[in-house]
Write a structure and sequence with these properties.
The complex is a heterodimer of chains A (104) and B (407). Chain A has three helices and five strands; from the N terminus they run E-E-H-E-H-H-E-E. Chain A is an alpha+beta fold and 104 residues long. Chain A has helices at residues 24-30, 55-58, 66-70, and strands at 2-7, 13-18, 50-53, 79-81, 94-97. In chain A, 15% of the residues lie in helices and 22% in strands. Chain A starts with a strand and ends in a 7-residue tail after the last strand. Chain A is globular, with a radius of gyration of 12 Å. A five-stranded mixed β-sheet of chain A has the order 2-1-5-3-4. Chain B has 407 residues and is an alpha+beta fold. Helix content of chain B is 44%, strand content 13%. Chain B contains 17 helices and 15 strands. Chain B has a five-stranded mixed β-sheet. A three-stranded antiparallel β-sheet of chain B has the order 1-13-14. A three-stranded antiparallel β-sheet of chain B has the order 5-15-12. In chain B, strand 9 and strand 10 form a beta hairpin. In chain B, helix 6 (129-143) packs antiparallel against helix 8 (158-168). Chain B is globular and about 60 Å long. Classes of the chains: A alpha+beta (104), B alpha+beta (407). Chain A binds chain B through residues 35, 37-41, 43, 45-48, 67, 70-71, 73-74, 101-104, and chain B through 72, 75-76, 113-114, 117-118, 121-124, 126, 280, 283-284, 286-287, 344-347, 350, 352-354, 356, 358, 360-361, 364.
C-alpha cells in the first residue's frame, strides 16, 4: 500500500492508502476527494484533475510529457495532472494540494 | 440500418415493460424550459435503462441510459461499444466517411487525437484570446443601446460561429447560410432537409479542400490536408470527416450553452449581481451551468452483449448517450434541479473518456469570455418571459430565441 495525502482547500488533509495499478486521479475520485473532477476519466485532455505536488516530491516524480505540459499553461509551479501520476510503492508519503476549483 | 419513419417492431430481447417514451427525441418541441421538469421527470419515472422506439433519428429505436455512473462506464468501454457510424450524415447521402475523430474507435482514434489535441490545448488557444475577446466586444457594441434583444440572434450565434468559421477559413458573410444548414442537420426531423444540408456541407468542404490544396493557409482545413498520421497523409474522406465534425460540433454547441446560460442569468438577478460583484466566480458558475443545461446527445452501438442496470444489451443495439440525463442524475448530484455555484461538478456536458470533447477548452474559453465581457459591458438585464419561446429537442436542446430586456 502507498500512502498519499491530499491537502484540501478548507485546510484539512486526507490520507489514503492507495492500491497498485491505479493513478492519483482515480484514487481521489474513488475516495470522494473534493476539488478533483477528472472529466475525461484519465485521457489527458480535460485538465480537471490538477494538483500541486509538494516541492520535496516534485523532482522525484517522472516528468510531465509534452501532452500533459500543453495542458498546464499558466498554472502554479509543480502543478500536475493527477491522472498522469501512477501510484507506485516509491510514492509512499506523497503529498499534494488540491485547488478549490479546477475551473478558476 | 435504414431511415424510415415507420416504427420498427420491438425486438425479442427487449422486455415490453422497458419500452418507454423518451420525451427528448429529435423533432419534438416544447414551449417550456425542458430543464425545469422534463429532464427530472425522466429520472423520477423511468427505469435506469429503458428502450425508446424513436430515440435514434428517423424512428429507429435505442436504449436510453439515464444514470451518470452507467453512462460514464459506457464512455470508457470500447470492448462492448463502438462509436462507428453513430451519426447518420454520411449514410444519408450514400457515402461512407465518418466524423473524425468522433466516429473512430481506438487505436485509430488515439492517432487522430494525438494529431488534433495540440490544436485545442489551453497553450494553443492563448493565441486566440485577443481575437475571442474582440469578437465579443464588437457584438456587444452593436446592441448595447437597444431596449430588447434576441440574445440568441445577436450574440449566441455570431460569437462562437465567427470564431469557428475563422479557424476553418470560411467566409463570415455566409454565416446565415451555414447556420441554416446547421439547423437542418441538428434540429430538423425532415429527412430531405437533413440530406440537403449534409450535401451542402460536404459540397462546401470538398470545394474548400480543392482550393486549399493549391493555396494552403493557416486554417484548420489546410492543417488537415497537410497533416501526417505516422508516415501517411489523411485521406480525402478523413479530411472531410474532420471538417464535418468541426462544423457540427463547433457551430451549434457553444451557441446552445450561451442561450441557456444567459437565459438563466437574465432570470436569476441575484446570481447576476453576485457575478458582477465577484467575476472570479464566473468559471464556477459556468461549470454548474454546463451541468444544469447539458445539451448534447450522441450514440454508441453495442458490439458485444453486456448487462447494464439489469438489462441485457445485444450487439447491434443502439444506446443513447444523453448528457442531459447523466448531468442531472439525482443518484450522482444532490438535488440536481438546484443551481449551486459552489458545486463544481464533474458533469457529462463534454462527454467523458477518450472521446471527451476535442474543443472543450475552446468552448470554456468562449463561454468565460462571453460572460465576463457582457457582465462588464452591460447593466443588469432581464429575461422577457412575456415572449413565448419554443425549444427544439433532440441531439442538441436549443431554444429558438432568448428574449432579453436591457437597461
Amino acid at each position: 500500500m502507498t500512502k498519499v495525502t491530499f491537502q484540501l482547500h478548507d485546510g484539512t488533509t486526507r490520507t489514503i492508502e492507495a492500491g497498485s495499478d491505479t493513478n492519483l486521479m482515480r484514487v481521489a475520485i474513488e475516495n470522494d476527494i473534493p476539488g478533483i473532477n477528472g472529466e475525461c476519466n484519465g485521457c489527458t485532455t480535460c485538465a480537471t484533475c490538477k494538483v500541486q505536488v509538494a516541492e520535496s516530491w516534485a523532482a522525484l516524480l517522472p516528468g510531465a510529457d509534452e501532452n500533459e505540459e500543453s495542458l498546464l499553461e499558466d498554472t502554479a509551479p509543480h502543478t500536475r495532472l493527477s491522472c498522469q501520476i501512477a501510484i507506485t510503492p516509491d510514492l509512499d508519503g506523497l503529498t499534494v494540494t488540491v485547488p478549490i476549483s479546477q475551473y478558476a | 440500418m435504414e431511415f424510415t419513419t415507420k416504427m420498427q417492431p420491438v425486438p425479442d430481447h427487449v422486455p415490453a415493460e422497458l419500452v418507454r417514451n423518451y420525451p427528448f427525441v429529435l423533432g419534438s418541441i416544447t414551449s417550456g424550459n425542458p430543464y425545469d421538469r422534463m429532464v427530472h421527470d425522466v429520472h423520477r419515472f423511468a427505469p435506469p435503462v429503458f428502450y425508446a422506439m424513436d430515440a435514434y433519428p428517423g424512428g429507429t429505436p435505442a436504449w436510453v441510459v439515464r444514470r451518470f455512473a452507467d453512462l460514464r462506464a459506457i464512455y470508457a468501454d470500447d470492448t462492448h461499444f463502438t462509436v462507428k457510424g453513430f451519426a447518420p450524415f454520411a449514410m444519408m447521402i450514400g457515402e461512407s466517411w465518418g466524423n473524425v475523430p468522433a466516429e473512430a474507435d481506438a487505436p485509430l482514434h488515439d492517432q487522430y487525437r494525438a494529431l488534433l489535441n495540440p490544436l485545442f490545448t489551453p497553450a494553443a488557444l492563448k493565441k486566440l484570446e485577443a481575437k475571442v475577446t474582440s469578437v465579443a466586444e464588437d457584438l456587444v457594441a452593436k446592441f448595447r443601446n437597444k431596449k430588447a434583444i434576441d440574445f440568441r440572434a445577436e450574440f449566441a450565434v455570431p460569437f462562437p460561429v465567427s470564431i469557428v468559421l475563422d479557424l476553418l477559413g470560411l467566409p463570415l458573410e455566409r454565416m446565415d447560410e451555414f447556420m441554416e444548414w446547421e439547423h437542418m442537420l441538428l434540429h430538423d426531423l425532415n429527412m430531405e432537409h437533413l440530406q440537403t444540408a449534409t450535401r451542402n456541407v460536404v459540397g462546401l468542404f470538398r470545394e474548400v479542400m480543392k482550393e486549399r490544396r493549391v493555396n494552403p493557409g493557416t486554417d484548420l482545413v489546410s492543417f488537415a490536408l497537410n497533416a501526417k498520421l505516422g508516415d501517411r497523409n489523411l485521406t480525402d474522406d478523413e479530411v472531410l470527416g474532420f471538417c464535418f465534425n468541426l462544423f457540427i460540433g463547433g457551430l451549434d454547441t457553444v451557441t446552445t450553452n450561451l442561450c441557456w446560460q444567459f437565459r438563466h442569468l437574465a432570470s436569476d438577478l441575484e446570481l447576476q449581481r453576485k457575478l458582477r460583484a465577484n467575476p472570479a466566480l464566473i468559471p464556477d458558475a459556468i461549470q454548474e451551468m454546463l451541468r444544469f443545461y447539458s445539451p448534447a446527445s450522441t450514440f454508441r452501438t453495442c458490439i458485444k452483449e453486456i448487462e447494464i442496470g439489469g438489462v441485457s444489451i445485444k450487439p447491434g443495439d443502439k444506446v443513447l448517450m444523453a448528457t442531459l440525463l447523466g448531468s442531472n442524475d439525482p443518484e450522482q448530484f444532490d438535488h440536481p434541479e438546484e443551481f449551486r455555484i459552489d458545486r463544481r461538478p464533474t458533469h457529462l456536458a463534454f462527454g467523458s473518456g477518450i472521446h471527451h470533447c476535442l474543443g472543450h477548452h475552446l468552448a470554456r474559453r468562449e463561454l468565460t469570455v462571453a460572460m465576463t465581457t457582457i457582465l462588464r459591458e452591460l447593466p443588469e438585464f432581464r429575461y422577457d418571459s412575456g415572449v413565448e419561446v419554443l425549444t427544439d429537442l433532440g441531439g442538441v436542446i436549443q431554444p429558438r430565441a432568448v428574449p432579453i430586456l436591457l437597461g
